Amino acid sequence: MDYPKSIPGVGLVNGGFVDENSVAGTPGSLIPAAWGNSVTQEILNVVQAAGMAPNEASNNQLLAALRSPALFMTAPQFDGGRSAATAEFVQRALGSYASARGITAATQLTQADVGCSIGLGGNATYTVTLPDAGAPTVPSGATISLHCRNNAPVTVASKTGAQISPQGGYLTSIVMNNGESANFVKESGIWVVYGTAALKYSANAAAQFGTTGYQRFPSGLIVQWVIGGSDANGYMSVSLPIMFPNAVLGGIANEGNPGGWSGSNVTVWAFDGGSSTRTTAAARVRNVLASSVKADAGISGRILVWGY
Asked: 216 or 78, which is more confident?
């Protein structure tokens, strides 16, 4: 749309229409019928696109059409085109969550849950299954937020294969406990997990539980425990579950089968820091009699050692 500059003798001044000036003897600009029809049709196109019937008596139909939801419809959830974004689309895409709801039983999440904050409630275990991260209908960057307030563990599973990655690995499921939260973000066909629920899957928080085991802490501290038996001289040296990367800081030792008292005798254990290494823990055991101290052989002992 433009002024009718191509019409000979249209009489535009500085590119616009002017009125006739009888005092100065200058004519007014012409308004060709084709140009008037074009302007009217441009406006009618907007009015009719909004689903409104043109009304000759109304002078605010263009404004009403521009405010009509028929013209400014909210684009589909993951639309990446260049259409105008409504407030509804922006609210759903950025900032606040699109919605929030609670779950208390086994549930299959869908594409409609993308952008939502979902609370996992209840008192019993159940499984929540994520949408298929390999489906093209779920674009990269799609996010689902879960926070667990259930009194029992909740399993969050992938729909197809090992699609969950809490700390670089690929798992078919993870477990969320009371108080934990997680954001599941689709990246290259995988649900990458951010939040407190992912911490226990980190190598910095790895653990092994049992009669022999260890616990890593994010600070770099490692605590290990082992059980072994003393030799004929009352010495015990046991291999650790994992090697300390840097050094042993200290340890304590006691009887592997708690008790240690036998009448008037007392079995005394001592951690042997000088003989301990980054891969072994050592201790000594002595039998304290009423009148003497001697090595105690064949006694089960437990060592708790820490290092980094």
From this structure: 216
